Each structure stands twice: as C-alpha cells, then as structure tokens.
Amino acid sequence: MxxxxxxxxxSPELNTKTALPFFLSEVAAGFPSPxxxxxxxxxxxxxxxxxxxxxxxxxxxxxxSMRDANIGSGDILIVDRALDAINNSIxxxxxxxELTVKRLKQTGAKLFLMPENEEYPALxxxxxxxxxxWGVVTYIIHKA
Length: 144
Fold this sequence. Notes:
Shape: globular
Helix content: under 10%
Keywords: Autocatalytic cleavage, DNA damage, DNA repair, Hydrolase, SOS response
Number of strands: 10
CATH class: Mainly Beta
Strand order of the largest sheet: 1-4-5-10-6-7-8-9
Structural class: mainly beta
Mean pLDDT: 84
Oligomer: single chain
Low-confidence stretches: none
Protein name: DNA polymerase V
C-alpha cells in the first residue's frame, strides 16, 4: 500500500531561486547536438512546477500500490490544493484516518480510490467512510 507519513510534508521554499541551465534542443536517444554547447536561458523549477504557491506542498510517498503510475517508495509528490480533483486525478486523500495516494475514480454513483498495482484492492468511498481529498498530485520527482 502506498502511504504517507505525517513527518514527510514540506512547503515549497519560494524565497530562494536557483536558476539551472535549460537546453533548448530536445533530447534524442542518439548523439547530442553541437548546438547544446550554448545554453540559451535558465529555468527556475519553482516557476515551472508550482502554479499555486500558497496551495502547494511536497510529500514523500512510501509503498508500491501506485507503482504502475510511476510513483515509487521514496518519491516526492508535488501536490496542489487549489486544483479540483476530477475523475482519474491522482490525489492525496485521508481514507478512514489514513493518508494515502491513489487515483480517484468515479463509476456511476460510486467513488473509489484506485491503486495502480493489481496486488492491492480498490478503496470504495461510502457514506460510512471518513474521506477527504487534500490535493491533486501535479508532478512526481524520483531518481532515474
């Protein structure tokens, strides 16, 4: 099961900017372009990855229930609380008191939190379920 520890929530640090080299040519699975010797501009990842700074947080995922969505144990998720969770969104949710990352799926009148690993069951949200969506996952950061 993919889960989230309460100690693994982070706010973005927006006061510091780190501009990194950004190559304008695309990466091919062949030889690099000689034009890449010239960096045309720099990119600040905060500007690229965070659309709503006051509503964005980072959280570390644990477990393998979202493995087929390319979310692995230890990955950092960028979560935006300003976005509306829609069908098929990957969300951070509280399900019966447990924080989890799952895909939101609506089938007819039923709502589910779906794992992306067939070894785990879907979590149905019913009237008896304690359930709250904390935000929508917008980016996944993991090591190559």
